[in-house]
Amino acid sequence: MRCQPRYKGPVYIWSKNKQPCLLCDETADGISPVCTACETELPWLGDHCQTCALPLPAAGLTCGHCLKQPPAFEQVITPWTYSFPVDSLITRFKHNAKWPFGRLLAELLAQYLQHRFEDDLERPDLLIPVPLANRRLRQRGFNQAAMLAQWLGTSLDIPCDERLLLRTQDTDAQQALNAEARRKNLRNAFALAPGAVVKGQHLALVDDVLTTGATAQALARLLMDTGAARVDVYCLARTPKPGETP
Ligand SMILES: [Zn+2]
Ligand SMILES: [Zn+2]
Fold first, then answer.
1. Beta-sheet pairing, 202-210 with 80-81
2. Residue 11's pLDDT is what?
3. Exposure of 28 by Cβ count < 10 A (0-12 exposed, 13-18 middle, 19+ buried)?
4. What is the pLDDT of residues 11-39, one digit of tens each?
5. How do strand 230-238 and strand 80-81 relate by DSSP bridges?
6. Residue 104 CA: which ligand is closest?
7. Which of 83, 86, 189, 214 has the fewest beta carbons under 10 Å from its own?
8. Which of the ligands is closest to the CA of residue 42?
């Protein structure tokens, strides 16, 4: 069953006409959905941890957390920090179902990934969106990670499987738990769909925002334990550590 809404609105007009920039209403140049000035002003991620993309003061470093406990994923690839206007675009996409904003961010992320593939990043075999808790899915009506993964898959010509991972428990009550209980809770919250095979595959998890990385870690652990060769994480934005500004 396919639960994601199909959106084929103004998105495809971008490539045909000169359209106003989606962020400032000036005429965008070329086929880009945003003008060069707006694109330059996006909160591009500066120096960051080579593994989890946490903003760091210098280039080429790995953060203390990743050094102490190397995550099951290989690396987090993200263009932006979670700050204005990317944060508000993501919020509008997620909570007000403003799909053109999600589509815009997905398109820019696809362009960013394409450059990274041409540079040195290995292309994955399959994109897998982070599954949404059932209760959230019922409230919201769509899984924003699955929409992002499908748009990325189309732009980058990489297959996408939104049914490979199942969220077997809702983990909304996480805040009340301590770190250890939270990790255990998360570990049991996901499962591979019956009959799914990931052996030997290079997978990329797709989500909107990476905050603590705990969900990505739990999913990457599950995929690696079931035979995946490598798991990367693609997301729109990375939050700094709580209390730090990007
Ligand atoms: Zn603009
Ligand atoms: Zn790190």
1. unpaired
2. 52
3. buried
4. 545 455 577 888 887 877 666 778 889 99
5. parallel
6. 1
7. 83
8. 1
